[in-house]
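Protein: Prolyl-tRNA editing enzyme YbaK/EbsC (Cys-tRNA(Pro) deacylase)
Species: Brooklawnia cerclae
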Amino acid sequence: MSRWFDVMGPVPASEHPELLGAPVRAALGYVPEAYVFEIDPTISDTDALCQAHGLPLEVMGNAVLVTGRRQGEERRCCAMALGSRRVDVNGVLKRRLDVRKASFAPMEEATESSGMEYGGITPVGLGAQWPVWLDETVRDVEWLCIGSGVRRSKLVLHGASLLALPGAELVEGLTR
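Structure follows.
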């Protein structure tokens, strides 16, 4: 286990469902090795959490919900990237979604459709309407820190385990 993991003191997520959003609790079977640790909800954003606890951006996972329209049909995905990288919304995602314009889902839509708090959105527990597209660098992180469905905690799991989620796939070149 890495040093940052030990410092944060995570506990098995299955033993602390009170620290998870309802959709995440329901999906723990896909990521049985997941851990969780509690944080101050005011620092749930990646940069703030890293700064407050000295966590490296290379172990932080950011999930962004992206939408676009084509011939009146809404198309969506959850793009998962490391905190040190940026999702290529106007290139790769726009082409893969086959839309004229791709953009981040508005906060109200993101929280309502995911059932999660803004700042805690995670691919774990997203419904089938949000296929999960992972940057290949995410897969290679031994212990990845991601949202837990709520702002007051974070999940920690093997990056490769996200591929066990329904609708999850690696997308080459997803980030810059």
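Remarks: The first strand starts at residue 11 and ends at 12.
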